[in-house]
Amino acid sequence: MSSPADRRYSESHEWFLVEGDLVTIGITTHATDALTDITYVEMKSAGATLAAGDSAGEVESVKTTSDIYTAVAGEVAEANTAVVDDPSLVNSDPFGEGWLVRIKTADTTPLESLMDAAAYDQMNG
Amino acid sequence: MVAKDPGDRYRAAMPETTTLTRSPLHNFHVEHKAKIVEYAGWELPLHYGSIGEEHLWTRSSGSIFDVSHMGRLRISGRHARRFLDRVCTRLVRGMQEGQCRYGLICNETGGCLDDVLVYCFSDDDYMVVCNGANREKITTHFNRVKADESLVFKMVDETESTCMCAIQGPKVMELLGKVSREVPTLKRYRFTVKNVLVMKIIVSRTGYTGEDGVEVILGAKFARQALGMLLKDIGVEGGVVRPAGLGARDSLRMEAGMPLYGHELDEQTDPISAGLGFAVKLDKGESDEQEGRFIGQDALQRIAANGPERKLVGLKLDGRRSPRQGMSVFDGDRVVGTVTSGCPSPTLGHPIGMAYVPAEMAEVGTTVRIDLGGGTDAEIVKLPLYKRP
């Protein structure tokens, strides 16, 4: 299964999709495969200021609670309320409806050092 | 995405160059679309699609878990019994053939090196089943005691020449009645050795899920074939017994209030504090010299006499956020303890956990706070958190 080619990927299994000055963050199929059954999502609220490398929130499954990290600095523009109401969306559509948070950033250069889809898929064998 | 649970982080961070051991059932897992992860140096199934569903299926029907990574050390010969009574907190002398006993291997200060199951085949032939992650440490410890005390026995590590599976769930014993008349008559913590074709199969009525069921040990070479036969005979296609992974095994044992080494138990934690006093023969060797005394006995006698300073308790939380290993337990603003395990309980429908708290706070009904984004109340509840109806 290949990951979408339109975005960048971190080693800790977040994806980053750039649209203008907005960066949408979610987790990959590889991540949801490991976690299974996501039971709870809590993201930083709109207006929160984050530095690159900060935790943007948490995703919880039976197995574990994980911090979700942002690779870009900026202000939270929107947290996905749909996944808060129905965390299983992250499992069923991690690259689409199951996105987690959107950050307004002035600088997307940190994403250049992240992996593209091919490199990310190769890392996960 | 980085797991908050340090145990989980460790597993994720294992260097890729480490040679991993594969279970004899590896191909079975792959065929059943398992998510394979590394655990204790082994490649093992984390789940086959959904941890939550596998958990609930174990509680309502039955599951088969590959636990081949558990260490299996056969200990036999002249001083086998004397040696085991020296290293194990539980009494081994007087065990009957076909009996299993749960016990701890302690250091001199009473801290746990591991928790184990001792199988008695005869009064000079035993097997110790230990945690996979502790196999090397325990082997080294056993060899050191053997040398220091000039004991004569043979220790054979049978872990990689055998395979071990747990079959657990309310419908399991009835199903096993289809292939064996004897197995359903086994009492808890008893085992039998069955000869099937050329295979020797050890079947014990033991487990780690809080459900009825068995654990099975058999030769690695025949494991895949035997599993196929068994699942065909008891009807895996009908779906009564389905494969389940380590993820469900962990959440099941948490509900059942069973300790996991590295979480509730470690070398700084004694079994009395962990609520495992039943597995410690505090007066070993005192009325019957033949029993001998075990390593750590003096320390554990002192702890038992003074009462442990902290105790393992169950936690019940409202809301959706779960306590996880390493989180602090608060009394007001004061840190009083640490969470050892936690998860959203699939059976109970609310978050649960286990934690060490000061003995004086361990009373059921006490409210503590867990550091979950601003602090969440948790109620101290009795262990086990779940008991089968």
Characterization of the model:
Chain A is an alpha+beta fold. Chain A has a single domain (8-107), classed as RNA polymerase II/Efflux pump adaptor protein, barrel-sandwich hybrid domain (OB fold (Dihydrolipoamide Acetyltransferase, E2P)), CATH 2.40.50.100. Chain A is 19% helix and 35% strand. Chain A contains 4 helices and 9 strands. In chain A, the strands form 2 sheets. Chain A has a 6-stranded antiparallel β-sheet. The N and C termini of chain A lie close together (10 Å). The mean pLDDT of chain A is 95. Chain B has 389 residues and is α+β, with helices and mostly antiparallel strands. Chain B contains 9 helices and 21 strands. Chain B has helices at 6-12, 26-31, 51-60, 80-87, 135-148, 172-176, 220-234, 246-255, 297-306; strands at residues 2-3, 21-22, 35-39, 42-47, 63-66, 71-76, 99-106, 112-122, 125-130, 154-157, 162-168, 191-196, 199-204, 213-219, 242-243, 310-317, 328-331, 334-344, 351-358, 367-370, 376-381. Chain B has a 6-stranded mixed β-sheet. Chain B has a 6-stranded antiparallel barrel with strand order 16-19-18-17-20-21. In chain B, strands 7-8-9-6-10 form a 5-stranded antiparallel β-sheet, with helices on one face. In chain B, α3 packs across α8. Chain B is globular, with a radius of gyration of 21 Å. The A-B interface holds A 12-14, 27, 31, 33-34, 36-37, 39-40, 42, 58-69 and B 1-5, 8, 35, 37, 46-47, 49-53, 55, 247, 250-251, 320-322, 324, 343-344, 346, 373.
